[in-house]
Amino acid sequence: MTFEPANENGAASGAAPVRFALEGATTIFVNRHSGLMLSCIEPFANAESLDETSNAKRLFDRTRCDKRGHAFLRDYRPADLLDRQAVLVVAKDGGRTAGTAFGCPLGERDFKIGGLVVDPAYAGQKLATGLIAALVLHGQTVHGQFREIIAGIRRLPDDRLNEASRRSFDRLGFLLEVDIQKVELCGTYEDRHLMSSAEFADGRAPYVRRQWMVAEGSIAEAHSRAFLRQWTQAVLPLPLT
Fold first, then answer.
1. What pLDDT, in 10s, does the model give residues 83-119?
2. Ranges for the N-acetyltransferase domain (predicted)?
3. Is 178 domain-assigned?
4. What angle do CA 174, 180, 184 make, to 5 degrees?
């Protein structure tokens, strides 16, 4: 699996595709106007990636809740990324971390995306979709062609879906499955912060509802390439702060 990385102006270089090795692999896409950068890294590969992993987790901890204080996302520990053979993508505005997401292989041919957050100051810049797209391309470079790529979307007790997240995946060819899963909470570090927005039913543990966004690997790859070609050249709105 190969693809053309961005050059210093953020556009595809036009040179022969570059093949990346797993250890220390890095892929970068840059918006030519704003300088916003999407950087895909292997967590803990070196001192720089360790810093980026820590910065990404700090942003995740600050932004994992919506405006009402409801947490949509399960938590993770940085060490989980290593255990799950994850690849990490961060959006950078100079030294500021503006967004992050990670992806982990499932079985031999599938891939799961999680931990997607964007600093609210960067709303409207399509960073969430850019993070997903960069993750799809880099993940397949590291782990090989995926059969299927999935991501969970939270549905709250008032039946609201995380609509912003749904749209971000929809742009890349992901489809929302009709089935709604009920996932019981175990009170671990991964889900205990979800208790305040959990649902309850007689005779069972508190639970949250989730729907899957799903895309074939080849479809997500094609959409991701097209999106990043446009994003690297687009004039983006300025950050809010």
1. 899 999 999 999 999 999 999 999 888 999 999 999 9
2. 45-196
3. yes
4. 120
Q: Does some domain include residue 120?
A: yes
Q: Do 173 and 137 form a contact (C-beta atoms < 8 A)?
A: no
- Residue 132 and residue 112: Cα distance in Å, rounded? 11
Q: What is the pTM of this model?
A: 0.85
Closest CA to 228 of 93, 102, 137, 163: 137
Q: Which two tokens stand for residue 93?
A: 């505005």
State which residues form the domain around 128.
27-231
CA pair distance 87, 100, nearest whole angstrom: 11
Structure tokens at 171: 């742009």
Decide if 74 contacts 130 (C-beta within 8 A): no
| Domain assignment of residue 48, yes or no | yes
User: Total structural domains in the chain?
Assistant: 1
Which CATH number do you get for residue 123?
3.40.630.30
Q: Which of 59, 124, 65 has the alpha carbon at shortest distance from 90?
A: 59
Instruction: Supply the pLDDT for residue 189.
Output: 80
